[in-house]
Request: fold
Amino acid sequence: MKCANCKKEIINGLYLCPHCGTANPSDTVQNVSLLNDYASKLQKLMKTVGTAQHTEVAWDLTVSQYVQKMEKLKVILSQPEFSKSSGERLIRRIGGFIERCKDPVFHIAFVGTIKAGKSTLINALLGRNLASTSVTPETAVLTKFRSSKKDYVKISFYTSDEWAQLWNSISSNADVFKQEYAALHGDEAKSQWINHEEMIHSVSNEELETEIERWTSSKHVEHYFVKEVEIGLSNFNMPEQIVFVDTPGLDDAVKYRSDVTRAYIDRANAVFACVRSDALTGGELNTLYRIFSNSSDNPEKIFILGTQWDSLNEPEDDWKLQKTEWVKYLATPSCYGSTEIAQRNIVHVAAYLMNLCRDYANLDKNKLKALKIIAFKFDVAPMELEEHLEELMEKSNVSEVNRRITHNIVPKYKEFLMNDIIANYQAISKEIRQFFEETRDSQNEVLQTSMKSADEIRQSYEKSKKELEDVQAYRKQLELAMDQLDKNTKERVNALCQSLEEMTKTA
Reply:
């Protein structure tokens, strides 16, 4: 069957042409005017979809086609018929997908609980102390590190709505947070930074640490109002698309900040989950299970790092026992699905040891003492420390973590990125199909319910009418009975009165 307008083939029995929207009525169609009305609406929608914004994606033709389809679906879902919460949620998901495709960044997220050693590890990998490792505050600001031709620091700030959500999410036991905020006169500085436009500061390599500290350390009131910091490094030996992400702690006293990390786990292309090597708690296990649930297509891109390995009493012997237990939990089908992969991807690391050895020449008295205590665990005497620095740096295992990134991830990052985009596209497409099917089914259900209700109303009316007639007939009978009872009662009362009167006369 061909469309009468565009002459393209259409399926028999399909009254509206999917190519041009023209109505193609047949002898079986009884209401042609209604069909034409639908055709008019369809043609209007097709015209609107045809004017959908087209986002250029130059780096991959397939991804560009995905984006075009999603932009058209976004227009359809924006129609009044779909202005429901689920439709709006899908529009937001599509928007996020398009943004992801426009800027093909490969995110390597470092996640974990507070003081799990995320920032210390990033500093070890960078070869320089740039990520905040302050003892008092947790990493409250999402911090990104990426390669750049010039060094820069880009800062984005919370909006009023985001700040309100953050403030309302502060837990009841966040006394330290509130005390530090008050001590730095946070409320007085708030108006200066909330809703502030994004800032990009070009800095020299020597100024980086000071500039980063200003926006990420609790020593400065500004850090409370910073949502994200991106740091461009001219000496970061990674492709420009690779980004290291230092995330807020998952057990942050400010729930909003922990939620930022949980959201980032879902969008990250590779994850290094930092867990203290001396413990694997139920909460951390739940976090690891969630990470695996969002990366079921390729669990091998998830690495579990037993951090602060040097804090164990006997690091080398104790870790063997710890790792055996960890493998039992993480080799299950819901995680790595293989003991071999779990053994390979669970790695110990002592980043603090690495950084102490690297900065040995400039260590203060306390840090030098800490290094000597750690070195003693590896049978290195204090007086022999300097000549064993290379050996201790190798013991830290940071080089192995770096090798996993440079050998296992970086060479395949484009493949991983493409797989993630395809998986995301398929997931959204599935949700959209389900949404349209549910919308169609709900409309059919409403129609069926309406028709059924009409029948029930008629039946109920007939039944009520009969019941009313029966009640009215019974009422008439009751009224007649009551009249008769009243008449009989009056007659008996009169007869009784007469009898009493006669008895009175003869007494």
In short: The radius of gyration is 37 Å. The chain is about 55% helix and 10% strand. The mean pLDDT is 83.
